[in-house]
Amino acid sequence: DAKTTQPPSMDCAEGRAANLPCNHSTISGNEYVYWYRQIHSQGPQYIIHGLKNNETNEMASLIITEDRKSSTLILPHATLRDTAVYYCIVRWGGQFYFGTGTSLTVIP
Amino acid sequence: NAGVMQNPRHLVRRRGQEARLRCSPMKGHSHVYWYRQLPEEGLKFMVYLQKENIIDESGMPKERFSAEFPKEGPSILRIQQVVRGDSAAYFCASSPLGREFNTEAFFGQGTRLTVV
């Protein structure tokens, strides 16, 4: 599975959009991009996933660049409850390999 | 529709005892993954099972660890002769289809094992 690179930590003001970047320069054509988050060492929570088109659901939007070497998770209106570690994972048919993720802190 | 259920949530074992961790997947899900998270570390894949079959156990330690997912009942992760280094959070995830279909997997709240 391709590896991902994420900044170790980010801050975001409450009510603002949180944009979390992820680099996956070695991604192959069949590999999907998944995002999960983990709050206070609870079980990881699925957020969104996509292959090449941008995706949106009730939680977030996923923007994947045309060359698919990077992506951005967007939380449109961050709240304090969005404070968590966010994991970007690329996967095709294999396990979910969790890296170290980005620790997002939403500031009041 | 209940989520993935893991029990117990907390488990304390003395060195040398056995630990049994249970995972009931979401209704309709027949694929289960087990992960381990050591303190201050990320989640590490251990094993992937389908009903009555181990599909991938490449992340399982070679000794003392075993997993099963019987036709009836929950998936079980068994750790024999536990040592202090086994202290960790163990997470189970389930999905409705095999990993080749690229569906999302849903995680339980984990079992926190403490070996004293």
Order of helices and strands of chain A: EEEEEEEEE
Q: Give me the number of helical elements of chain B.
A: 0
Query: What is the subunit arrangement here?
Result: heterodimer
Largest interface: A-B, 23 and 24 residues
Largest sheet of chain A: 5 strands, mixed
Cα(first) to Cα(last) distance of chain B is 36 Å
Q: Main traits of this protein?
A:
heterodimer; A: 108 residues; mainly beta; 5-stranded mixed β-sheet; 4-stranded antiparallel β-sheet; B: 116 residues
List the helices and strands and how they pair.
The complex is a heterodimer of chains A (108) and B (116).
Chain A: E1 9-13, E2 18-23, E3 32-38, E4 45-50, E5 55-56, E6 61-64, E7 70-75, E8 84-91, E9 102-107
Parallel strand pairs in A: 1-9
Antiparallel strand pairs in A: 2-7, 3-4, 3-8, 5-6, 6-7, 8-9
Chain B: E1 5-7, E2 10-13, E3 19-24, E4 31-37, E5 43-50, E6 53-56, E7 65-68, E8 75-79, E9 88-95, E10 106-107, E11 111-115
Parallel strand pairs in B: 2-11
Antiparallel strand pairs in B: 1-3, 3-8, 4-5, 4-9, 5-6, 7-8, 9-10, 9-11
Description:
The complex is a heterodimer of chains A (108) and B (116). Chain A has 108 residues and is an all-beta fold. In chain A, 0% of the residues lie in helices and 46% in strands. Chain A has a five-stranded mixed sheet, with no helix packed on it. Chain A starts with 8 loop residues before the first strand and ends with a strand. By secondary structure, chain B is an all-beta fold. Chain B is built from no helices and eleven strands. In chain B, strands 2, 4, 5, 6, 9, 10 and 11 form a seven-stranded mixed sheet that branches. Chain B has a four-stranded antiparallel sheet with strand order 1-3-8-7, with no helix packed on it. The termini of chain B are far apart. Chains A and B meet through β3 and β4 of A and β4, β5, β9 and β10 of B.
